[in-house]
Amino acid sequence: MSGPLTHFDAAGRAAMVDVSAKAETVREATAKGRITMRQETLALIAEGRAGKGDVLGVARLAGIMAAKRTAELIPLCHPLPLSSASVELELAEPDAVEITATVRTAGRTGVEMEAMTAVTVAALTVYDMVKAVDRAMRIEAVRLVRKSGGKSGLYEAE
After folding, report:
1. Which tens digit of pLDDT belongs to each residue from 30-65?
2. Residue from 9, 18, 95, 128 carrying the catalytic annotation
3. Quaternary state and partners of this protein (predicted)?
4. 106-134 pLDDT per residue, tens
């Protein structure tokens, strides 16, 4: 590594950070978010009456798949071999689905982007599966809540 970690090359152009000199460590990140909706829409999901099927099951799978493909979606993001990715969706009465994603790898860079991408895609999948009955849903508060590993160590949101 010839200099500081930066997303700019010597000519000032965007470039992928060279992390080859960084130590491999176990890295884990957890992100959360929510999608708010009408109470009737949440009831439809809870009762399994959505016309497109198991909303929470499909959204969970979509989030995991998105974590695995984050480098294809986010420019300059490193492709990482993930050792695990989990997405949990919980009904939050009266009007929301809470989403939590945790992603882990052993590598030279963290998995924060993978965790946040998993949450976002899971929320978008919920939206897609019930938008016919509620186009006013809102995807909100996607944020990193915990990160461990690497040189910067532990981060926990307040």
Report:
1. 999 999 999 999 999 999 999 899 999 999 999 999
2. 128
3. Homohexamer; trimer of dimers.
4. 988 889 999 999 999 999 999 999 999 99
The HSE-up count of residue 77 (CA atoms within 13 Å, CB side) is 20
Cβ atoms of 108 and 22 within 8 Å: the answer is: yes
Annotation marks residue 9 as catalytic: no
Predicted TM-score (pTM) of this structure: 0.90
Q: Per the structure block, which two tokens stand in for 45?
A: 């999901």
Cis peptide before 4 (omega within 30 of 0): no
The CA–CA distances, whole Å, from 13 to 7, 9, 87, 109 equal: 8, 5, 35, 21
How big, in percent rounded to 5, are the helix, strand and coil portions of the chain? 30, 30, 40
Cite the annotated binding site for substrate by residue number. Answer: 76-78, 113-114
